[in-house]
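Postdoc handover notes: sequence design on the structure in folder B. Input tokens:
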């Protein structure tokens, strides 16, 4: 259900980092290690503003209620009950409630309301 989309970061000690360093394509700043925060330490060949805007557009698109709930429905249709059971915790219940409110109520076109 969750889409993993992020901007590439070159981490020290990797071949990518070494190559980009040789090509002078690294921003001399610390990496966050979080490829989903919209930052990168790589100087891309394309315009950085275009890259960031494309990232924002993708995130906005894939997390619209229509696309998110399509992934939820696919998951529920294909889901098989696992043999191991995870304990229910307050944190998990709160995360589920926050998702339902944001996608189903605040977005105004969620699964419950039948919007598209």
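Designed sequence:
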């Amino acid at each position: 259900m969750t889409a993993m989309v992020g901007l590439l970061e070159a981490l020290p000690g990797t071949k990518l980092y070494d190559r980009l360093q040789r090509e002078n394509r690294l921003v001399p700043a610390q990496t966050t290690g979080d490829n989903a925060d919209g930052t990168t330490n790589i100087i891309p060949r394309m315009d950085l503003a275009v890259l960031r805007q494309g990232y924002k557009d993708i995130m906005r698109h894939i997390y619209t209620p229509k696309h998110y709930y399509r992934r939820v429905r696919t998951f529920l249709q294909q889901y098989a009950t696992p043999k191991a059971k995870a304990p229910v915790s307050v944190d998990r219940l709160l995360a589920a409630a926050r998702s339902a409110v944001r996608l189903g109520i605040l977005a105004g076109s969620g699964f419950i309301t039948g919007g598209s």
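Context for whoever picks this up: Residues 31 and 41 are 6 Å apart (CA to CA). Don't rerun without checking with the PI first.
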